[in-house]
């Protein structure tokens, strides 16, 4: 493991602080433009993650029924109930913040959780196999969750779905396939391993820079959101770890379950919020603040649950 990978948690925290400071110092237009770096950095990062996957490992999902069942229950049954309880209990008088929290928490991540899974030496093959399932289910179920639990429906248009599938899944997979077929993935494996956390830091810094003024302008609302967000990001890893222990999952699959149930899909949820509720900025605020809490926690989790490398006998 490279020095960059070992220091990933500190680098993510430093990138967040640097991006936030830059966002306050830059002109508003320049700060907003920094947000345009998030998606490209994320896509290149996923190309690196996918290029290190062995195609044979993707079939491992067939032998991981326990992990699959646990992830589906935690992501699509328990989490919506927890999101409703947190919103009703802590944000009952703020319907917009409650809907924003709901949109954030009921959308499992379909991108950077793979980076943290790889950093913690989880089973990235199973993680990648879960990605399209999580994406499809959340887009189908999101309007149902919001209608039943939030009181209003957020419809998903065909363009949003197509962009999510093409950009987040198919494009990185296609590029990674080319790298593997040409042998570049193996030839440049050390460089890819080092570049992946650096790209994550770039995405984090750009996100903090783009939304720094939004965060400072809504300090009271953010303080109201923090208890609910912190509760979620503390409860889910613990429950996932307990489920993994009950199922007696191997260490790498335990890491995968923790990451796939803790990370949230804020980019897609933010796009849906802007589309469905263009005149209610407080809904989008929860989706901006969410990653600011989530990413440092995921970086810390990756260090805490990292699978120990196999021991090699001397000589």
UniProtKB/TrEMBL annotation:
It is found in: Cell membrane. Gene3D superfamilies: 1.20.1530.20. Its main location: membrane. InterPro entries: Arsenical-R_Acr3, BilAc:Na_symport/Acr3, Na+/solute_symporter_sf. Keywords: Cell membrane, Membrane, Transmembrane, Transmembrane helix, Transport. GO terms for cellular component: plasma membrane. It comes from the Bacteria. Signal peptide: none annotated. It is a multi-pass membrane protein. GO terms for molecular function: antimonite transmembrane transporter activity; antiporter activity; arsenite transmembrane transporter activity. The chain crosses the membrane at residues 7-27, 33-54, 66-91, 97-116, 128-148, 160-179, 191-210, 222-243, 255-277, 283-305. Belongs to the arsenical resistance-3 (ACR3) (TC 2.A.59) family. This is Arsenic resistance protein. It comes from Sediminivirga luteola.
């Amino acid at each position: 493991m490279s020095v960059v990978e070992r220091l990933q948690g500190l680098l993510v925290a430093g990138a967040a602080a640097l991006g936030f400071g830059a966002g306050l110092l830059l002109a508003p237009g320049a700060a907003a433009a920094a947000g345009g770096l998030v998606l490209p950095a994320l896509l290149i990062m996923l190309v690196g993650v996918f290029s290190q996957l062995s195609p044979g490992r993707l079939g491992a999902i067939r032998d991981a029924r326990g992990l699959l069942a646990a992830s589906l229950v935690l992501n699509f049954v328990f989490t919506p109930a927890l999101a409703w309880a947190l919103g009703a209990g802590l944000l009952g008088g703020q319907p917009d913040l409650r809907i924003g929290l709901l949109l954030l928490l009921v959308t499992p991540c379909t991108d950077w959780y793979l980076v943290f899974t790889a950093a913690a030496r989880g089973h990235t093959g199973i993680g990648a196999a879960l990605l399209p399932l999580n994406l499809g289910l959340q887009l189908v179920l999101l309007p149902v969750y919001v209608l039943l639990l939030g009181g209003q429906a957020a419809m998903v248009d065909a363009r949003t779905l197509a962009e999510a599938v093409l950009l987040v899944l198919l494009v990185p997979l296609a590029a990674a396939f080319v790298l593997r077929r040409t042998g570049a993935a193996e030839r440049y494996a050390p460089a890819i391993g080092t570049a992946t956390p650096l790209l994550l830091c770039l995405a984090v810094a750009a996100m903090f820079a783009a939304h720094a003024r939004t965060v400072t302008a809504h300090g009271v609302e953010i303080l109201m959101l923090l208890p609910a967000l912190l509760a979620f990001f503390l409860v889910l890893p613990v429950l996932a770890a307990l489920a993994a222990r009950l199922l007696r999952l191997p260490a790498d699959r335990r890491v995968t379950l923790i990451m796939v149930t803790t990370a949230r899909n804020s980019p897609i949820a933010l796009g849906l919020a802007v589309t469905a509720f263009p005149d209610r900025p407080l809904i989008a605020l929860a989706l901006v603040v969410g990653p600011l809490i989530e990413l440092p926690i995921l970086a810390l989790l990756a260090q805490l649950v990292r699978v120990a490398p196999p021991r090699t006998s001397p000589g």
